[in-house]
Design a protein that fits this description.
Length: 1241
């Protein structure tokens, strides 16, 4: 064809160039879609000319514009490492989100993101920073220098992964011709191969899919094949009816795949497959034209508005093609004889499997089909699912090539009998919103009222309720005052009390899951009870509560119920340490996952595998709120469960794991992680909730910030007064400590303006007078001011005594409205008839900005409405921005799957296992990863981890991928010098790694401490290094705290050590708060009190880690070790080293029995055996220990001006240990000396 090249001359300054030949009609017909076969040269020339001119400015210079090519595929290499792909996705999403925040919701974020990227890291790289900033500011008027610095940093990180950077020859606009080809019209534009249009949807799960070729190679191969076959006789064209009806369905499938790809790229938690999405959309389209748009927007979200418009426009054609495909599917089912039920397989496979049937199986299937027809059971669902399978694998080949290869799940009643939920037919969720839902568009907001789910009918369910008298006589003591177990407890009774296998219970909040935990403990007690009813000490039960605030409440309840059986229950948290003797005597340990992680790390170097440690005695582990796997702390749960499962397999010691959770959409994944068999997995939907719960969702449509806040307060007040009028109590949840009082004061003011304060007046309550006296004793002026108006406030920044008082007042009914933060929902069981979430925007210190309230927090808050034993009905209201309304509806009504957070914290977990000796190589680490929940999610959502179909085909167990992930984490640890990696990928712990694992220090903190510790550090530098720990990254410096922090810092009696960084930096704030604690001074700001308590919770542990790190150094760190040891003692004793030794007798010693709150500024023990004013006189007179020890009682009396005080000083001076050490040095050789020492007291 080269010889037939047509040549033409275009004169321009005497230059000419050759035009390449156009494709023949035959090639166009075979290579291009049908609508592109008839090529309009004039129209194409105009289109290319406009595209070409768009690349240049007025002066011929390169013009920076946004194109449609800015997508994740530009940065994620298909054949790249998993770590690189993960980082590229993270940077891309962060960059996209930051651009959206800067530009606003009105601008397409993808276009503005490409414009910013081109300006900072693309074609605008030749400009300096000021020019780049001005260029962006011309487009984004509100653009600031801070925004520019943040976006420029992200774009530079993203540029490292750019597959087609601006420096590539393909993307350059050449000004001088180098070859003849460059003279072609439009040759400098990016060429898109036609096959890209049909493969843009990404790979699909097909049985025998070959290795994907590049689009260029695929195009050339097909072109060569077509030209080679041009001389052969042409085959008859297929009938139009066999290909044309699939055109709309092919577009529909590709659109669904692109939507899922965008959802995955935006860090959505959706795990819906293409088949499920297509099934749901087809069902919605088939309902009717009236409800199409609202239903589709509710399901897909407003971000898919263009897709919804196209679906509605093509609705008729899609449904027509869908009906034809269903007919073809029915015919194929008939031709193949029948369809077998897919059997469960070990692991998860990507591709469907071909079902081969024998003649006897076919005869049996035919008989079953006839029986189904006799029983009038429809087979339409099979045709529906078969058609969806055909649609998922549909190509542009004739319909005769269609084949059902994937076994269809035949509808039957043999599903898991332990799964109790309402039946939802179809491939997706049958209903977008529950029946009876009402949507109203009101002035300034939209309201969606969702009715309560129909309650479960025990008679229809034929539930056999378990009477307490049916339990053994000794076990009935634990259920004193209860006649029978409730519905859920009765269904689970045999699995909990009759068997010893692992158990997973998914039930709504308040369904009585705690009693199920008691049943499992009773079974273990029965196995270790002797004939006389006594209990031995050879077993332990570990109950892991989700929060430290719940530990005390659970421990108290268990002690009351199990105490009569001789069971000892102990609380074990960061504040409560048990001695070795107490650990031997205790039966039930109530703790949090972090504390249990520390305990199992430190039970000898082998983690309990080579000695009679605590872990060997544990035979039952109960995990409450296991759905916190999706939370930041979920990685700790994965760590302790993986360690327990691995220990169980290696040692043969049986350990039963019982997990309690709220309703989960992917409970099967959690069951697989916990090794729970089908008969021990129980799932109960919202119809099993003991108290029906109505929910209301309100989305504010106001865009102006001031009007939005005013409307938020107005709507909140309307919701509050509606419930208070009926005599109900209301809890209003806000998202900052300061908003609790502001909201309460605003609501009180609005009640006064509306002359409705009488509804909040509780002066007639019989306990009002008592609580009024208690409120007057409070140091919190806000509590006093708001109490008289009928409101209460509650947040973590309040003193514990004030929080307890507020809880008692609300529980007694003296306070009708309580404004609180979300910590109350996770803490004390405080009920209310109605709960209101005022706004969903919360500050995230790690992200450095605001984010939406998590769905787990929303579920927990909603669970506080109508708790059993308090109410017969509950109501929950969520007020948010209109843009988030449908998102929360989807999350709460359909729920998003629980994802793993283990990948983010893998480095710390891996370091602990290496330090314990459980992992010694990359192979061991990859095997250890098999026990995590992350491993389960590899198979459920592989696209999130960069796992392709080819990865599964080459490595079904994903060992290579697991090695990639652990190697990435191990490399971080090796660079931080926590471990060493040799050439054979063996892992060896270092002293620094052992210290980090022992003291539960983050690997980044350990690296910072190791690099920051130098010789002769002063106290101010020590405090600055301590304040820079990664553990304090969540703290922030608030404007309302600056004045008080400045006053404390300038007082030498409070802060004798100079503060580096001042009050503006976090490490400066940490240094001030630690010195305030040591100086025993009061803090007025309640938020500062909370931050100080948080600093104290970590202070002792981090300073011990600093001390241990200096002890691992070989030389020149002895002085630093001595200084850090003094800091450890000062923190433990809450005394400055410079203070008089007799001050130890002014305050009682802290212990687990006397100081249950741990180190804090409140609720500490009061008073000592020696008055503080006596010691103060001795300090003022500069009488130190060595001066007073030689004084007589009469001399001490003259100093203290009291005979009794003189005797007291003399008495306690003699109780101070006085160690005298005499040493002599005697040389023996030139390198050896003898040093005898004599010690006496």
């Amino acid at each position: 064809m080269a010889s037939d090249t047509a040549k033409g001359q275009l004169g321009q300054n005497g230059s000419s160039f050759t035009l390449r030949p156009r494709l023949t009609g035959m090639l166009r017909a075979r290579l291009y879609p049908a609508d592109a076969v008839h090529f309009d040269m004039d129209l194409e020339e105009i289109r290319r000319y406009k595209a070409f001119e768009g690349q240049k400015g007025k002066n011929g210079e390169t013009k920076i514009t946004a194109k449609d090519g800015f997508c994740m595929q530009k940065f994620v290499r298909p054949d790249g490492l998993a770590g690189d792909k993960h980082d590229a996705r993270q940077y891309f999403n962060s960059f996209l989100n930051q651009c959206a925040k800067v530009a606003g919701d009105e601008v397409d974020r993808q276009s503005i993101a490409e414009f910013v990227y081109d300006t900072t890291s693309g074609k605008g790289m030749s400009m300096n920073e000021d020019e780049q900033f001005e260029a962006i500011k011309q487009v984004i008027l509100t653009f600031t220098k801070q925004d520019f610095s943040r976006l420029r940093g992200l774009s530079q990180k993203l540029f490292r992964y750019d597959r087609f950077p601006a420096s590539d020859e393909k993307s350059k606009i050449s000004t001088k011709p180098q070859t003849e080809m460059e003279y072609e019209f439009g040759s400098d534009l990016d060429f898109i191969y036609p096959l890209d249009a049909s493969t843009s949807g990404g790979w699909r799960m097909t049985p025998d899919e070959p290795e994907p070729e590049s689009s260029e190679q695929l195009f050339m191969n097909r072109a060569k094949a077509l030209m080679a076959d041009s001389a052969r006789p042409k085959e008859p064209k297929p009938k139009p009816g066999s290909v044309a009806p699939r055109k709309e369905l092919l577009w529909f499938r590709d659109a669904c795949e692109e939507h899922l790809a965008r959802a995955a790229g935006s860090s959505s938690s959706s795990s819906m497959t293409v088949e499920e999405l297509m099934g749901q959309l087809l069902e919605t389209l088939d309902k009717g034209e009236d409800a199409d748009q609202n239903a589709l927007i509710d399901f897909l979200g407003f971000e898919a508005f263009e897709l919804v418009e196209q679906l509605i426009e093509r609705r008729r054609q899609i449904l027509e093609d869908w009906v034809e495909l269903k007919k073809q599917a029915s015919e194929l089912i008939s031709k193949q004889g029948t369809v077998t039920t897919a059997k469960p397989q070990r692991g998860t496979s990507f591709g469907p499997r071909i079902s081969v049937m024998s003649e006897s199986e076919k005869r049996h299937a035919k008989q079953s089909k006839k029986a189904a027809i006799r029983e009038n059971r429809p087979t339409g669902e099979l045709a529906h699912m078969a058609a969806l399978q055909l649609l998922a694998t549909l190509t542009d080949e004739p319909a005769a090539d269609l084949e059902i290869k994937k076994p269809l799940a035949k509808p039957s009643a043999d599903k898991n009998k332990n799964v109790h939920q309402s039946s939802l037919s179809g491939m997706g969720l049958k209903l977008v919103l529950p029946e009876g839902t009402q949507r109203q568009v009101l002035k300034g907001y939209e309201r969606v009222d969702v009715p309560a789910a129909p309650p479960f009918d025990p008679e229809k369910g034929k539930v056999n309720y378990v009477q307490i008298k049916e339990l053994p006589q000794w076990a009935q003591v634990a259920f004193k005052g209860t006649e029978q177990l409730n519905t859920i407890q009765s269904i689970v009774f045999n699995a909990a009390f009759g068997r010893s296998q692992n158990l997973l219970i998914c039930a709504p909040t308040g369904a009585g899951k705690t009693n199920i935990a008691v049943l499992t403990i009773l079974r273990l007690i029965g196995q270790h009870m002797d004939a006389a009813g006594g209990l031995g000490r050879d077993f332990k039960v570990v109950y892991m509560a989700p929060m430290k605030a719940l530990v005390g409440e659970v421990a108290e309840k268990f002690q009351q119920r199990l105490g009569p059986l001789g069971v000892n229950v102990a609380e074990l948290t960061g504040d409560m340490n048990l001695t070795k003797k107490e650990l031997e005597q205790v039966h039930v340990i109530v703790t949090v996952p972090e504390k249990w992680d520390v305990m199992t790390r430190n039970t000898a170097c082998g983690g309990g595998q080579s000695d009679d440690s605590l872990q060997k005695l544990v035979q039952l582990i109960i995990i409450d709120e296991v759905h916190l796997l999706n939370d930041e702390r979920g990685a700790v749960i994965e760590t302790v469960v993986a360690r327990s499962l691995r220990f169980q397999e290696t040692s043969g010691q049986p350990v039963r794991i019982v997990a309690l959770s709220a309703t989960l959409p992917n409970y099967q994944d959690v069951a697989a992680f916990l090794r729970v068999e089908g008969e021990n997995l129980f799932y109960f939907d919202s119809s099993y909730r003991p108290i029906p719960l109505e929910t209301s969702f309100l989305g504010i449509t106001e865009t102006n910030r001031v009007k939005q806040m005013a409307k938020l307060n107005e709507i909140c007040y309307e919701a509050v007064i509606e419930q208070v009028r009926k005599g109900h109590q209301v809890m209003v949840f806000v998202h900052s400590r300061g908003d609790t009082y502001k909201t309460a004061d605003t609501l009180a003011q609005m009640a006064n303006d509306h002359q409705q304060l009488g509804f909040f007046d509780m002066r007639t309550h019989m306990q009002f007078g008592y609580f009024q006296q208690q409120v007057q004793k409070s140091r919190n002026k806000q509590v006093q001011m708001i109490f008289d108006k009928g409101f209460g406030i509650h947040h973590a920044g309040m003193l514990r005594s004030d929080r307890t008082l507020t809880e008692k007042m609300f529980l007694a009914g003296v306070v009708p409205v309580l404004c609180c933060t979300a910590t109350l929902a996770w803490g004390v069981n405080l009920p209310a008839r109605s709960v209101i979430i005022k706004g969903t925007s919360i500050f995230d210190s790690q992200a450095g900005g605001y984010k939406d309230l998590g769905i787990l927090d929303v579920q927990q808050i909603f669970g506080r409405a109508g708790r059993p034993g308090f109410d017969t009905q509950g109501h929950a209201t969520l007020i948010t921005e209109h843009a988030n309304l449908n998102n929360y509806l989807r999350l709460l009504l359909h729920q998003m799957p629980i994802e793993s957070k283990f990948l983010e914290n893998m480095a710390n977990a891996l370091n602990a296992e290496i330090a314990m000796g459980n992992v010694s190589s990359e192979k061991d680490a990859a095997d250890w990863l098999r026990y995590s929940y992350l491993f389960v999610r590899f198979f459920r959502t592989p696209q999130k981890f960069g796992i392709t179909q080819q990865d599964f085909e080459r490595d079904p167990s994903l060992e290579k991928k697991r090695r990639e992930f652990v190697h990435e984490a191990a490399t971080k640890l090796c660079n931080a010098r926590l471990i060493r990696i040799d050439n054979n990928r063996n892992y060896n712990p270092t002293d620094l790694g052992r210290v980090a694992a022992r003291f539960y220090v983050d690997w980044e903190t350990a690296e910072s401490f190791s690099k920051g510790l130098v010789q002769e550090m002063t106290d101010d530098r020590i405090l600055a290094l301590f304040g820079k720990a990664h553990e304090f990254s969540q703290l922030k410096s608030r404007e309302d705290e600056q004045a008080e922090l400045g006053t404390l810092m300038e007082d030498p009696q409070v802060c004798p050590v100079r503060v580096l960084g001042g009050t503006d930096n976090i490490y400066g704030k940490v240094a001030i708060l630690l010195q305030v604690y040591l100086s025993r001074r009061y803090i007025d700001g309640f938020s500062l009190v909370s931050d100080c308590n948080y600093v104290l919770q970590n202070a002792s542990r981090l300073f011990r880690a600093l001390f241990e790190i200096t002890m691992t150094r070989v030389t020149n760190m002895s002085e630093m070790s001595d200084r850090l040891l003094e800091w450890c003692k000062m923190i433990d004793q809450r005394l400055w080293q410079s203070q008089h030794v007799l001050r130890h007798f002014c305050y009682p010693p802290g212990s687990s029995s006397s100081n249950k709150g741990g180190k804090s500024l409140d609720d500490g023990p009061k008073g000592g055996v020696l008055k503080e004013q006596i010691v103060k006189k001795l300090e003022d007179a500069n009488f130190d220990y060595w001066t007073i020890i030689n004084m007589t009682v009469s001399e001490l009396t003259n100093i203290t001006r009291s005979k009794d005080w003189g005797k007291a000083v003399d008495k306690y001076m003699r109780r101070v240990p006085n160690l005298i050490l005499d040493a002599k040095i005697q040389p023996i050789t030139s390198t050896i000396m003898r040093r005898p020492a004599e010690r006496r007291f």
